[in-house]
Amino acid sequence: MTTLLSIENLQVNYGTVAALKGVTMTVSEGEIVTVLGANGAGKSTLLKALSRLVPARSGDMKHQGKTYNRIPPFEVVRMGISHCPEGRRVFATLTVEENLNLGAYTRRKEKVAVEQGKERVFDLFPVLLKRRRQLAGTLSGGEQQMLAMGRALMSRPRILLLDEPSLGLAPLLVRHIFDIIKEINEQGVTILLVEQNARKALAIANRGYVLETGTITASGRAADLRKDPKVQEAYLGGTALKGENAVPQETYR
Known about the structure:
Elements: E1 3-14, E2 17-28, E3 32-36, H1 43-50, E4 58-63, E5 66-67, H2 73-79, E6 81-84, H3 96-103, H4 111-124, H5 126-130, H6 141-153, E7 159-163, H7 171-186, E8 190-194, H8 198-204, E9 207-212, E10 215-221, H9 222-227, H10 229-235
């Protein structure tokens, strides 16, 4: 498989505090790769660094073999990497359709392609078609998450960075969101997924990494991580994942 994204010895500091301490990982075309870890492990910082929202202190980030450590965030989007942040971050005073249009900002001159992008989003999330003239701030939490994901897809990314897409959602909506993530991947979008629901994440991922206090402590095929006693104890409630419909237990974010 072609490596789309590679990170070598990535270090990120917030002042004097080291948030990432030499992270090395790869994401290949067509994969779903998940990153697991407790609160404060550096998961969101990793995605922000990859989308150039926070600067790297040192290390190397490559997209299709080309280093992009110093380019501005909008160029990262233009390059084919789109970030759906934790907490949805929709523009509350704009309509659903206006939020989607902003997601296509780097392609705004391609009017036909932008309309096709919206049609694709509405196919994935039919409720957004019904709400297209509604202010984003009046949507439910689940609908806002769908909008955030749809907005990220409007730039037609090759790689989608998803940060905690199931956070705060009811179990039925969580299942729906993960079904959509799989569908997006099947449509040809590679996904790097940070997710507090470790069971669900490992059920759909090809591979995974465990991040602890800024350091990768385990990695491998998702099936192998599900069997790892340490992963089971920390993130799966002490029992191995036996299928997507396994009853979820409390997990760390």
